[in-house]
Amino acid sequence: MLSEFGLVLVHMINSKPITQDDGAFLMFLDFSRSEASPTEVKEAIIKNIDNINIYLIEPILPGITVDRVHFPLLFLNERAVIFRESALKGWIVDVREKFGTGGEALLYHIGFNMGYEIYESYSREDVRKYKRWTILCLMLYTAGFAEKMRVNVSENSVNVKVWNNIECSMGRQSKKPYGQLLRGIIGGFATEYFDRKVKVIENRCIAIGDPYCEFLVYT
Predict the structure, then answer these.
(1) Which of 15, 70, 111, 163 would be 148's cystine partner, CB 3.0–4.6 Å?
(2) Same domain for 113 and 40
(3) How far is residue 123's CA from residue 37's CA, in Å, rounded to a whole number?
(4) pLDDT in tens, 153-179
């Protein structure tokens, strides 16, 4: 039906999980080659398809449309926000430049608490312990934090390899490993996993030219 109106489907996502009752899809359509208005297309679809509701989201500015229907943004059933890299630089890079090693310590502390809370959430959701590192890797990937992670867990240590993590990619040409926030996340997570204090060393880092970042965790 969209092609009948000369519409181009630019993007479509399943914005609500499909259950036995209903489902929801968000569609971005290009009307530049269509003689029909959005309202006319809406009425035609409703007329031809049973049990369907359609909400029109008009552009805020020419060429700029955002989803103003689905709020809040959820990630793993919790509220989430999205920051672009330029905004993250104000946090991850500028805090180092302004406070030096104190800024690095702050980032590690923030990351540590994040890792702790992430592990606790997995515990509450009854995720089996041996799967929790795998879930952490998947979570950081789907959140856009890293392209790939590989974790090797032994009785008293963990080896974590991370490819293209966003924190260290912003610190390229650094003279030392750059992953304080991620080191903290791993440290907080590992502390809960082993139920004792751990030491985390970033042994390799893309910021200093290595092909990936490597974190060594010791109890």
Answers:
(1) 163
(2) no
(3) 51
(4) 999 999 999 999 999 999 998 999 999
Same structural domain, 63 and 124:
no
Domain that holds residue 117: 81-218
**One domain, residues 59 and 25:** yes
- Whether residue 142 contacts residue 156, with contact meaning beta carbons closer than 8 Å, is answered with no
Our CA angle for 209, 167, 146, nearest 5°, is 90
Looking at the fold, whether 38 and 116 belong to one and the same domain comes out as no
Task: Say if residues 186 and 200 touch (Cβ distance below 8 Å).
Answer: yes
Which of 34, 49, 71 terminates a domain? The answer is 71
The model's pTM is: 0.81
Q: Is the peptide bond before 72 cis (omega within 30 degrees of 0)?
A: yes
SS3 sequence of 101-125: HHHHHHHHHHHHHHHHHHHHHHHHC
Task: Please name every residue paired with 153 in a beta bridge, in sequence order, or none if there are none.
Answer: 158
Per the CB < 8 A criterion, the answer to whether 144 and 166 are in contact is: yes
Residue 166 CA: distances (Å) to CA of 110, 145, 146, 162: 16, 6, 6, 10
Listed residue (6, 9, 58) closest to 33, CA to CA: 6
CA–CA gap between residue 156 and residue 218 (Å, rounded): 6
